[in-house]
Design brief:
Blueprint lengths: L11 H16 L10 H25 L8 H17 L3 E5 L10 E6 L3 E10 L14 E3 L2 E3 L7 H16 L6 E8 L9 H4 L1 H7 L4 E4 L8 E2 L5 E10 L17 H15 L6 E10 L1 E5 L4 E5 L8 E10 L2 H16 L6 E10 L6 H16 L6 E2 L18 E3 L6 E2 L7 E3 H18 L2
Parallel strand pairs: 3-6, 3-7, 7-16, 8-15
Antiparallel strand pairs: 1-2, 2-6, 4-5, 5-18, 9-13, 9-14, 10-13, 11-12, 17-18
Length: about 450
């Protein structure tokens, strides 16, 4: 029984989903999986025999602090995985970032062959918990384990690794073409993106299908689409003067009223399915000072002075490049229609592209669904992209077919309540192993 004390109210939906998935697993008898061939059944047996070692590997990995900006910790975590992939016959390389990027680098592992589809498997080594975080240790609690990165995404890395290990130990990796990319900066991507994600794009251009091992929502869904993300900055200027003269021909409406008009019009006129635009920071008054590195600022102003300056920093989420550009055009048009005595400008900054739902992605989902049904787990359907954030797989979505959400089940990501459901890891590893096996025949 899972102790409810570690499943707070805002994670109860995740908890109930996990319980249903575990109930499903408990109903599945190994004899039901009659549609697996002899070699596939051997793969499942190897996953089972390696499961204790997989959990030990996860604990060791979680106990290495690899907050994105703790570069030494990210490198140490990368070394752990380099040794593990080398033992499976992969050639491994640590890709260093130049000093200006200020990130630890990435792990590239490759099994060179010619059989079946060429696969690109994607994960990341870093977490959001830096070296000074109080949340540092792996802590098993009955059927769960808490700790930094347990679900996001060291658990997913272990599913990937031990699926490949089972294939290796049955000889099924021989002759296959598989590239593994584990980034050291997924949580805060290094800039420029051409440097921090260039090697991933190069690997994608040598592959046919990308599989992402970010967290699984449940056994019956996987991700065929992820929204992209970008930033926007709104700057508004008014005419400073005594507040008694506001709305006059000389002084106009002031910067804060103009900003209110713009944001309210965004709210009423820009929305559409899968598109969100969040103003996360706003400073306004007589004078403002914003430190972008710290995402904080100072404001000076008085109630009897017409506001002169406003700064708004926001984010934009979108399901396609077309939707992104249409939203930007709408926002720009709204910004240009100013109230009297004010001016405004908006600028946009690209970050993560969108992974759009393509027919090719749906075909890969069908492969997973067939594997799942053959194993007795039931069909797998597409997950709602509105419930997922941006991910590294999006950088390669324009080059090849993609499927994400193949990692562990858990919850509380990016909080000190992060946990992984240990009861589901073995089954998810088995499913990943059979899927990779079939794609590479």
């Amino acid at each position: 029984m899972i102790p409810m004390s570690i499943c707070p109210s805002h994670h109860r939906s995740t908890f109930h989903t996990l319980c249903l998935s575990v109930l499903l697993l408990s109903m599945i008898h190994s004899g039901w999986a009659q549609k697996l061939n002899r070699h596939e059944k051997k793969i499942l047996s190897i996953v089972e025999s390696n499961h204790t070692k997989a959990l030990e590997f996860l604990e060791k990995s979680v106990n290495i602090n690899s907050g994105t900006m703790h570069l030494e910790g990210v490198i140490a975590t990368g070394k752990q995985y380099m040794e593990a992939f080398s033992a499976l016959g992969f050639s491994t390389t640590w890709i260093e970032m130049h000093a200006g990027v200020n990130r630890a680098g990435h792990l590239l592992a490759e099994n060179k062959g010619f059989k079946g589809k060429r696969l690109l498997l994607i994960g990341h080594l870093d977490t959001v918990f830096e070296k000074d975080s109080p949340f540092q240790k792996y802590q098993p609690m009955d059927s769960l384990a808490t700790g930094p990165g347990t679900s996001d995404m060291k658990g997913g890395n272990v599913v990937m690794l031990y699926a490949l290990k089972a294939l290796h130990e049955t000889g099924a990796l021989e002759g296959t073409r598989i590239i593994v990319m584990l980034h050291g900066d997924e949580e805060i991507a290094g800039k420029p993106l051409s440097a921090s994600r260039g090697d991933l794009v190069t690997a994608a251009k040598r592959s046919d299908i990308a599989l992402g091992f970010e967290g699984a929502s449940d056994f019956s869904h996987a991700t065929v689409a992820r929204r992209g993300s970008s930033g926007w900055t709104l700057k508004v200027e008014g005419t400073r003067g005594h507040s008694s003269r506001i709305f006059s021909e000389k002084y106009g409406a002031g910067a804060i009223f103009e900003t209110s008009r713009i944001l309210n019009t965004f709210y009423n006129e820009v929305p559409e399915e899968y598109l969100t635009f969040n103003p996360g920071v706003i400073l306004g008054g007589t004078s403002i000072n914003f430190d972008s590195a710290q995402s904080s600022g100072k404001v000076f102003g008085k109630s009897n002075v017409i506001s002169q300056s406003v700064l708004v920093k926001g984010g934009l989420r979108f399901i396609s490049e077309k939707q992104k550009e249409q939203a930007r055009n709408k926002m720009s048009a709204i910004v240009s229609d100013n109230l009297p005595g004010t001016t405004a400008e908006i600028s946009f900054r690209d970050s993560y592209p969108a992974m759009s739902p393509t027919p090719g992605n749906m075909e890969v989902l069908q492969v997973l669904s067939k594997v799942s049904q053959d194993m007795g787990y039931g069909p797998v359907e597409k997950y709602d992209p509105g419930k997922r954030g941006a991910g590294d797989i999006s950088f390669v979505a324009e080059y090849l077919d993609c499927l994400d959400g193949l990692g562990v089940m858990g919850g509380g990501a990016h909080s000190e309540e992060e946990f992984v459901d240990l009861r589901t890891m073995e089954a998810l590893t088995k499913r990943a192993a059979i899927m990779i096996y079939r794609l590479t025949r």
